[in-house]
From TrEMBL:
UniProt GO molecular function: GTPase activator activity
Domain Rap-GAP intervals: 49-97
Keywords in alphabetical order: GTPase activation
InterPro entries given in the database record: Rap/Ran-GAP_sf, Rap/Ran_GAP_dom, Rap1_Ran_GAP
Example GO BP: regulation of small GTPase mediated signal transduction
Gene3D superfamilies, A to Z: 3.30.1120.160
Name of the protein this chain belongs to: Rap-GAP domain-containing protein
SUPFAM superfamilies associated with the record: Rap/Ran-GAP
Length: 97
């Protein structure tokens, strides 16, 4: 059965260790694919994927990064971390490109 609805996936954070694509996919139970993810170099495909993301992504899916302090388990607790978000977001976005 395919899971539906919101899913909370917690990934470990270490300032000295980068998570691999394989470990992230494993945490989301997506590591069973025959072929792994690959970077797309074709500009037309990149443009088409961006259009698809703009048309469909915001309608059907929401992705984001939320900073969680030790012991925080609920969304309300995590959303109350406003003072940490700027630093965390800047770090994460700098790592992701």
């Amino acid at each position: 059965m395919v899971p539906r609805g919101t899913q909370k996936i917690c990934l470990p954070y270490s300032p000295t260790k980068t998570l691999s694509v394989k470990s992230i996919l494993s945490a989301m139970n997506l590591d069973k694919f025959e072929k792994g993810p690959r970077e797309i170099f074709n500009a037309e495909i990149q443009k088409d994927l961006l259009v698809l993301e703009e048309q469909e992504g915001s309608v059907n899916f929401k992705f984001g990064v939320l900073y969680a302090k030790d012991g925080q388990l609920t969304d309300d607790e995590m959303f109350s971390n406003g003072e940490y978000w700027c630093v965390s977001a800047a770090y994460i976005l700098s790592r992701e490109g």
